[in-house]
Amino acid sequence: MNILTKKDIKSSKTVLESIINSLNLTKKEQQLKELEKNSLKENFWADNVNAQSVMKQMERIRKEIDTAKDLTNDMDSLIELYNMTQDKEQLMDEYNSINSKIKEFQRLKFLSGKYDNHNVLLSIHAGQGGTEANDWAQMLLRMYQMYCDKKGWKYDIENIVSGNETGISTVTMKILGEYVYGLLKKEHGTHRLVRISPFNAQGLRQTTFAGIEVVPILKKIDTDIKIADSDIEFKAVKSGGPGGQKVNKTSSAVQITHIPTGITVHSSTERSQVQNKENAMNLLKSKLAKILEEERVEEISQIKGNYKQASWGNQIRN
Known about the structure:
Elements: H1 6-23, H2 25-39, H3 48-84, H4 92-106, E1 119-126, H5 131-151, E2 154-162, E3 168-176, H6 180-184, E4 189-196, E5 205-217, E6 232-237, H7 244-249, E7 253-258, E8 263-267, H8 273-294, H9 300-303, E9 315-317
Parallel strand pairs: 4-9
Antiparallel strand pairs: 1-3, 1-5, 2-3, 4-5, 6-7, 7-8
């Protein structure tokens, strides 16, 4: 059995202190006080959606602060016990338990970006590979759905276009949860699949690609953001995927393209074209908000990333 050393404890304590310093908890304590003060106002629940968002934010900050205090107290207690006892082996289980909690807490150190705790729009686009690419896109969709279920995140399919023979051509998911963007932002890029294709009559190995786009949904969209009618291209299309005969036979789905940036958004979740158009515009504003705050369209790459064709040489996953 391993014997706990003073070096082990010192190393874990240093890691914990580094995490706490990186999270700037002093500033968050001030932020929590302000949020708690606002939550006591009479008209706080007038805007129910905003109130719930604030309550979740308070809960998240409070959890970070409490976890930091609990781990600090646990580590101090362990150090005290270590100095008092001769049998260091019996402290190993306690040390491992604390160290495991520190490693879990450490993930917040890498999820402190401006948009890391935002919900996301995740889009999957079939790339080169024809029918095989459509099937690969559907496989990726199932993979992300299973990951969302594992993390306890909620998700909705905002838009889906089926492939000509099988699979999907493109799909957009809205994913809601804690630190969704921070955990998914590295998925942005081209994903490659190499396999013996079930769609190839000769049973040959085939390479296919799919593009993933991950964009944070801003919690507060600037209502002053104005998008000129001349800057957008509106198209009403028939809804794809499940939804009943009425959804599939009427042109209720909406596709809007922002001409200056080339960003395209879809919405087909509602039966009403008016509602879908409103949803699509909100999605577009979410993608443009950060850019327009800095008044530089060039900043599109920081949210959307540089466009790369889903093909050879651009993949991030094989």
